[in-house]
Every structure is written in C-alpha cells, then in structure tokens.
C-alpha cells in the first residue's frame, strides 16, 4: 500500500459504503486472456483506457510503464500525457472547439491523433492547421455496422475527405472503426461474423484510399467482443478494446467472459427490509451502480447487477432488481419472497455491474483486493469528467 493510503481502511469490512472494489487477480486474468487472443495475429494493441481511467490499470494492461493508448476525452489524454504516455488516439470525432486543446497537447510532444468522418470537419481542420502553421495526425472513422458514427464504406465522401487532408498538408494516419453493434449479437458465431465485417469494412476503405493514390498507413479496429473472437485480421494494423479488463454482465451475457471473471464490483451494506415483498434494501442505488440496464436486451435480464458475498462469491439467483438514487433493492430472481436470503441489517455485499465503464464512472477510486479476499491491497485513484 502506498504512502497516500497508509491510513485508509485495510479491509473491505472497514469501509463506508458504497465503494468500488477491484479484484486484481481477475483483472490480470482478463488481461492475459485478451493478450493471448491477439497474439494469434500480427497486430499492435492500443487498449482503450476510458473503462478504467487509471494509470495503474493501464500499465497492467500494457505490461509496461507506457505505450499506445486510446482515449475518449481530452481530459483522459491530458491525464495520461502527464503520466508519460505520448502516443494517444482520441477516438471521438473532433470538433473545432477542441482544436486548441489538441494543439496544446501536441506542442508538449504528444502524438495525439484525432478522428473525423465528414468533409466539413476535414476542411475546418485544414483551415485551422494553416492558421496555426501546424500539422495534425488524423484518422477517418468508418461506419462498419450502422451502429454510430463514421463514413459508410462505399461512400464517395471517403475519398473526398482523404484528398482534402492531403491537399491541406495533414497527415492521414489511417482509418478507424468500432463494431459497437457486436454488443447486440446473440451468439459467438454472430460475434465472429461481426468481427469479419468490421475487418472487411476497415481494410476495404484503406484499400480504396490507397488505390486513389492517398496514403493510408494504419487500419485500427476493435471492440472487446470482436477483439476476443476475431478469426482474420489480415490488413489490420492495431486493435483497440477496453471493457475486457474488468468484464461485466453485458460481456458475460454475450459469452465474452464468465460471470466469475468479472473483476469490478460495488461494495454495499444492507440497511433494511421489506419482507412481505421479499426485498432487501441497501445503500447502493443508481448513483453507485449507474442506470445502465444493458442486460435488459439480452436473453437473461440481470437487473442492476448480481449480488455477491463480501468475498466476491455469487449468491445464486439473487440480483439488484431496482434502484433509487441512494437505495438499492435486492431480491430473488423468482420474485418469491420466501426465496430471498436472510441477510441481516449491516451485512456487506458486492454487486457485479451491467456495464463496468458506467459503474466505474460513479466512483473516484478502486479498492484493490485479491480473489476471494477482503484485505485491501492498495487504493488506486481514477478520474472523472471532461
């Protein structure tokens, strides 16, 4: 435990709740599994740090003090740059209001690559680069699955954007895509198909640009499901993924991990009962868990999360069925009050979340433990906001 945390509680049972708990053993197991999956291919790994927002977790993911990373906010880029990370991909579409921040980071020696998906933004970026006598590193975002942002692979605009950037003296670093629709897949076979679709769309766009005489050095793809189950990454330069580090119930519902692999949980305390309803009331509501109900679209709805004992062992068919701001409601999956376990007031529990990114965002630190243990090994700070 470091000097800053020496006076903090040494066991989970000493903490005021709610609190965020990170099982280091499970986290390291998840990281090793992703590395093994990607080791089958000749690709670089650029993990997404938006899930953890933590220096310690990111270094554990990379297996070294620094390396290429993906961020989703410029605050993340600022924070990681201050901690020695110099190769950063900002994987959210750039807008003119953020140009100054990007330029400041680049003037500090940070290779900060930005993303865009329209000719309008390419022109605005080139105009600003001329005004500032600077050069941006840029990737064109590709819509590989109709999920969110990006240029449709066969759209003429792809070449228009490439030509605009080249004419404006900017460095087109490559193309980027994210198969977010993989989160809606219903089988491993469907995820594998989505992974192939993601790869084909990105590589195909890179080939279109090159055929038009526009340099396109890199092809960047990735989501946790597709990164885990990809069968062919020919032509891909790098893979991005983030939530695999912790896992969550959405990933477990997809078959990407098992429930017992999930490394993140929220520590809570039983504060009351509604025995006629079969309810156990806790002090962790949606402010501690988030409102994310991602499993509601899956074959098995896990409510707001699954319930574990203090050591992290799952309680069979017990889940957080409802949430108010600071109150959680725990019950048996069947809804039968007689099946709800007898958990006295003061009992401490851990809730495994639907979405690790959203739940983590509610907290400012991780209380790090090892598997099945309640001793706090360390406290790792995480940051929030924009």
From TrEMBL:
InterPro entries: Ala_racemase_N, D-amino_acid_metab_enzyme, D-ser_dehydrat-like_dom, D-ser_dehydrat-like_sf, PLP-binding_barrel
Keyword Iron tagged: no
Gene3D superfamilies: Alanine racemase, D-serine dehydratase-like domain
SUPFAM superfamilies named in the record: PLP-binding barrel (SSF51419)
Domain D-serine dehydratase-like positions: 263-370
Domain of life: Bacteria
Keywords attached to this entry: Lyase
Pfam families associated with the record: Ala_racemase_N, D-ser_dehydrat
Family: Belongs to the DSD1 family.
Protein name (record): DSD1 family PLP-dependent enzyme
Native source organism of the sequence: Collimonas rhizosphaerae
Lineage of source species: Bacteria, Pseudomonadati, Pseudomonadota, Betaproteobacteria, Burkholderiales
């Amino acid at each position: 435990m470091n000097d800053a945390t020496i006076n903090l509680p040494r066991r989970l049972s000493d903490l005021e709740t709610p609190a965020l708990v990170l099982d280091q053993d499970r986290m390291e197991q998840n990281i090793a599994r992703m590395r093994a999956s990607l080791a089958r291919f000749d690709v670089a790994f650029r993990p997404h740090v938006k899930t953890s927002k933590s220096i310690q977790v990111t270094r554990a993911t990379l297996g070294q003090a620094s390396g290429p990373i993906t961020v989703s906010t410029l605050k993340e880029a600022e924070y990681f740059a201050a901690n020695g990370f110099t190769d950063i991909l900002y994987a959210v579409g750039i807008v003119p209001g953020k140009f100054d921040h990007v330029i400041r980071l680049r003037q500090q020696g940070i290779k900060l690559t930005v993303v865009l998906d329209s000719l309008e933004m390419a022109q605005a970026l080139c105009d600003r680069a001329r005004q500032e006598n600077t050069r941006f590193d840029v990737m064109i975002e590709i819509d590989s699955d109709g999920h969110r942002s990006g240029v449709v692979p066969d759209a003429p605009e792809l070449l228009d954007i490439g030509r605009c950037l080249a004419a404006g003296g900017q460095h087109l670093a490559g193309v980027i895509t994210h198969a977010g629709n993989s989160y809606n897949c219903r089988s491993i076979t469907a995820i594998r198909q989505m992974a192939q679709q993601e790869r084909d769309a990105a590589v195909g766009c890179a080939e279109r640009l090159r055929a038009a005489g526009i340099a396109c050095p890199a092809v960047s793809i990735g989501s946790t499901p597709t990164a885990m189950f990809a069968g062919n990454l020919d032509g891909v330069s790098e893979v991005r993924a983030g939530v695999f580090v912790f896992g969550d119930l959405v990933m477990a519902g997809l078959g990407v991990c098992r429930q017992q692999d999930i490394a993140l949980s929220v520590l809570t305390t039983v504060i009351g009962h509604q025995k006629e309803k079969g309810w156990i009331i806790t002090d962790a509501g949606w402010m501690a868990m988030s409102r994310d109900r991602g499993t509601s679209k899956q074959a098995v709805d896990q409510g707001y999360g699954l319930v574990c004992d203090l050591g992290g062992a799952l309680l069979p068919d017990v889940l957080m069925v409802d949430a108010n701001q600071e109150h959680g409601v725990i019950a048996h999956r069947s809804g039968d009050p007689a099946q709800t376990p007898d958990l006295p007031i003061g009992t401490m529990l851990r809730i495994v979340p639907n979405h690790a990114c959203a739940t983590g965002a509610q907290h400012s630190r991780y209380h790090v433990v090892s598997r099945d243990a309640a001793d706090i090994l360390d406290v790792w700070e995480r940051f929030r906001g924009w």
